[in-house]
Amino acid sequence: MTQALIWASAGTGFTALMTTLGAAMVFLFRSRSSPVLHRVMLGFAAGVMIAASMWSLLIPAIEKAEEMGFIGWLPAAGGSIVGVAFLLVMDYLLPRFCPETFHLKAGETSRHRTALLVLAVTLHNIPEGMAVGISFALAAQSGDPGLYTAAAALAVGIGIQNFPEGAAISLPLRQEGMGRGKAFLIGTLSGLVEPIFGLLTVLVVGSIQPLMPWLLSFAAGAMLYVVVEELIPEASASQRKHTGTMGVMVGFLVMMILDVALG
Is the dihedral of CA 147, 148, 149, 150 positive or negative? Predict the structure, then answer.
């Protein structure tokens, strides 16, 4: 168990570090940029989240469910519905819990999008951290060097994928006028859930593994809700809609290539 915790700490620490490096992209921007770049950044975040929800969450959820002998689409659909419902409730409750925070001044953009974007990506990072934790826990139980190699490869793959996800949080926040330091901090914090939940999973690996398809799908549903409800409409809110569309396509292609190439 101790060895599994050490390996899981190293693996999920790397994935969190890559999220931090992605969030650090915000320091490349000296000041708040043009509305065109703002739409491109929102589109990029939307594309990253669409691809991640497909290749990092829904497809693995279906595969894991089938490995367990269940109908593959059932947890994928059910978990997604629960994820969408959760974000609908949060979208309704956030302004009522913190009315001053969500009271907009003239010229400000919606803070719903900011909160939901951060929440969705953070939820997406939870099952990724758990997947790394499970991989190292199973390797430690069996003592098979091949399983350790596979777990390490999974951690590296998820970590590299986390780089554009960190940027997908911090860059849109910066374009909305948030300070570079705060945007970077929020992007970094979204990745810290991975080591936390990765280590917790090592401790309870036997009981949490059957829930993984549902947890992956839950995160996918939450991400897709934010994309459709907030990011794409804002990215297209202009006569020059193609700028936001191009951002979506670039983000989608980048994340798809990383997901498929890194397995």
Answer: positive
Could you tell me which residues come within 8 angstroms of residue 193 by beta carbon, excluding any fewer than 6 positions away? 122, 125, 126, 129
Which residue blocks in the chain are alpha helix, DSSP H?
2-23, 35-51, 59-67, 73-97, 111-142, 145-175, 180-203, 205-208, 212-226, 232-235, 241-262
Q: What is the DSSP letter of 102?
A: T
The H or E element that residue 107 is part of is none
CB 42 within 8 A of CB 247: yes
- Separation of alpha carbons 120 and 162, rounded Å: 14
Amino acid at 192: L
Strand, helix or coil at 145?
helix
SS3 of the chain: helix, strand, coil, percent, to 5: 85, 0, 15
Give the separation between CA 118 and CA 59, rounded to whole angstroms: 23
pLDDT, tens digit (0-9, with 9 covering 90-100), for 7-55: 889 989 999 999 999 899 888 866 555 677 777 877 888 888 888 888 8
pTM of the model: 0.70
Return the exposure string of 150-176: e unless at least 16 CB atoms fall within 10 Å of the residue's CB, then b. bbbebbebbbbbbbbbbbbbbbbbbbb
| Structural contact between residues 11 and 196, judged by C-beta atoms closer than 8 angstroms | no
C-alpha distances in angstroms, 36 versus 31, 131, 200?
14, 37, 42
